Amino acid sequence: MKQHMRAWLGTGVVIASAGLVLAGCSGTGGGTSPSPTAGELTASSDALTVMIGSSGDAETKAVTDAVAAWSGTSGTKATVVAATNLQQQLSQGFAAGSPPDLFYLGSDAIAGYAGNGSLMPYGDMLKNQSDFYPSLVQNFTFDGTFYCAPKDFSTLQLVINTELWDAAGLTDADIPTSWDDLASVAKKLTNGTTKGLVFNGEYARLGVFMAQAGGVLLTPDGKAEANSDANVEALTYVQDHLKDGSFAYAADVGAGWGGEAFGKALGAMTIEGNWITGAMSADYPSVKYTVAELPKGPAGAGTLQFTNCWGMATDSPNQQAALDLVEYLTSAEQQLAFSKAFGPMPSVQSAADAWKTQNPALVAFLAGAGYAQGVPTQAGASDVIAAFNTQLETLKTADPKTILDKVQSNLEALK
Asked: Is pLDDT at 1 greater than 70 in this prediction?
């Protein structure tokens, strides 16, 4: 299976040419035990089971090889299981009292697993704790406790078809740095069946404009601010250009996602994450493109980031070995190897310079780490955002404030 996209909703979500395959972990575990105490790890000679939601053969092989190398050095046996349905298999494991020791966990699932005591809070025990990007640590912090190590991450930036850009008479000096600039170049790039900017009609893409306007859905302390003036301004900006035809949703040009629209020249620009590189090389190898940071909005730079962590089960009988394995898998050296094998960006700051050297054309994605917003992690927020996505499908003709008022109401009901 080709990796086209890591969706913001949970783990192991990929888009293949045939459609969307969900292997995510957006639910909660089956345990109801009290929250464990950080600092107390189990230890035994038991083998470890590591469950992943893989994007394909390359990721499965890379993780399996890395775990085997650690096992050979540590003397602890470990098996990697590539789940066909991660959410379901995790839930079954927890319900049966035999969950995997380690597993991929999306930031949207942290509240559920941590809240019911299924997740071991080992974050503060990591030797490399200070090396993780602070924003990623925040994604996996629940009730003030850092639960699990971010395994990698991605951000959204602007991807530009250089052939169409040149044909429109645009140069490097025209790469947009403001909303006005973006609107201007999108209009110039709109020609025939090609729209200037095409992206998925969902919060996981439109949220970048909200961030650039200074808006959030939920503040770090859980206060709902969905219908803020900043968010209304952001959606109104997008709506204006959906109406004038220079922006378009992927579905409205007959594409399954922004990368497909971009690859087929239905969009001269798109908003996507670094996963698009794999899709382009696999499906549209002749399309030349460049990646630039998204333009600043009224409040400055803004984008969204998506990440998963290495969840550790409270019921694991060998947590000390599991912790050692996590430290191995999240080391700069190993994360750079994973990046080379299947594309994610390392979650540790010490790998940044090497990653930039190895991926000079993709530096804009890593630049977003300094100002990216994570998606809301509060329990129930993913359901609210799913409803928000349905409303966003009608943004071209609907009232932005009315849409956001509904999101506000739904978020306030979570408390």
From this structure: no
396 and 273 within one domain: yes
Answer whether residue 9 shows pLDDT above 60.
no
Domain end position, chosen among 328, 344, 366: 366
- Using DSSP, state whether 166 is helix, strand or coil: helix
Are 213 and 347 within one domain?
Answer: no
d(CA 388, CA 384): 6
- Which structure tokens are listed for 107? 């930031």
In order of 7, 38, 132, 415, the CA distances from 31 in angstroms are 26, 18, 29, 22
CB 2 within 8 A of CB 16: yes
Beta-bridge partners for 248: 198
Average pLDDT over every residue of 377-397: 94
State the CATH number of the domain containing residue 133. Answer: 3.40.190.10
Domain shared by 298 and 222, yes or no = yes
* Strand bridging mode 303-312 / 149-161: antiparallel
- Judge whether 131 and 369 are in contact, CB under 8 Å: no
> Domain check: are 266 and 163 in the same one?
yes
* Whether residue 256 sits in one domain with residue 271: yes
Best CA proximity match to 163, nearest among 283, 291, 288:
288
Per the CB < 8 A criterion, the answer to whether 373 and 207 are in contact is yes
Residue 380: is its pLDDT beyond 60? yes
**pLDDT digit string (tens) for 93-136?**
999 999 999 999 998 889 989 999 999 999 999 999 999 999 99
Exposure of 122 in the CB half-sphere (CA atoms within 13 A): 31
Range of the domain at 185: 156-304+377-412
3-state secondary structure of 330: coil
Neighbours of 412 (CB within 10 A): 12
